[in-house]
Design a protein that fits this description.
This protein is of the alpha/beta class. The protein has one domain: Rossmann fold. Helix content is 28%, strand content 17%. Strands 1-3-2-4-5-6-7 form a 7-stranded mixed β-sheet, with helices on both faces. Helix 1 links the parallel strand 2 and strand 3. Helix 2 packs across helix 3. The protein is globular. About 3% of the residues have low confidence.
Length: 212
């Protein structure tokens, strides 16, 4: 089953050649979480897309949610069109699976994660749901993705994280030996998608030339 579809467009007349941006939400969230961020990006000329992952409460393995993302991109973005991908928290792992295991590496030019537990989070031990088990440190899912994490160096990868995160434990689990890492002292996990500093950094990463 694919998620609910959304599509936001910038104002008419903006002709900068920017890639469409697909945003992927975290656990128990929906695409509506990105309202503040998408409004900013649209004012700056980006075309933003997103979906509601179903179910997003951890009942579904992350690899199955990644297949929803792949299907959404395939049916929504024209073939041959490069995209940029932004993933928040669990959405960053769903996006990584799409990139590293479902062929997304051939379509994604810029990939940005916000407070994503790339190396797991101790908070995942609070649930026995399949998706939460995959977010535990040293899970088979994470170890599989991290064994060839250098794939992300083939695209413009940026990990943005906060040392004050109370959901990603330890907070530096968001750091990977690939791409660029940006630390911002945002006080709450959920604020990473609404804080002006985070949004500014996302926009900066989306502006990086692909040949940089």
């Amino acid at each position: 089953m694919t998620g609910l579809l959304y599509k936001n467009r910038p104002s008419l007349g903006f002709i900068m050649p920017l890639n469409p941006v697909v945003l992927v939400h975290g656990i128990t969230d929906t695409f509506a979480l990105f309202k503040t961020m998408t409004q900013h990006l649209e004012r700056s000329g980006w075309q933003t897309y997103g979906l509601d992952l179903i179910p997003a409460n951890g009942d579904s393995p992350l690899d199955l949610l990644a297949k929803q993302l792949a299907a959404y991109i395939e049916t929504t973005i024209p073939a041959g069109q490069f995209i940029d991908l932004v993933g928040f928290s669990m959405g960053g792992l769903v996006s990584r699976y799409y990139i590293q295991r479902l062929g997304g590496i051939s379509r994604v030019q810029r990939f940005i994660t916000l407070s994503t537990p790339h190396n797991g989070t101790l908070a995942a031990y609070l649930s026995q749901r399949p998706g939460c088990l995959q977010m535990r440190p040293n899970s088979h899912f994470l170890n599989d993705l991290n064994q060839d994490v250098d794939m992300l160096d083939r695209i413009h990868f940026t990990s943005i994280w906060t040392p004050l995160d109370g959901i990603i434990i330890p907070a530096n689990s968001s750091v990977l030996p690939a791409g660029e890492t940006i630390q911002i002292k945002v006080p709450l996990h959920a604020w990473m998608v609404t804080d002006k500093r985070s949004i500014t950094r996302v926009a900066e990463a989306l502006r990086r030339p692909v040949n940089d």
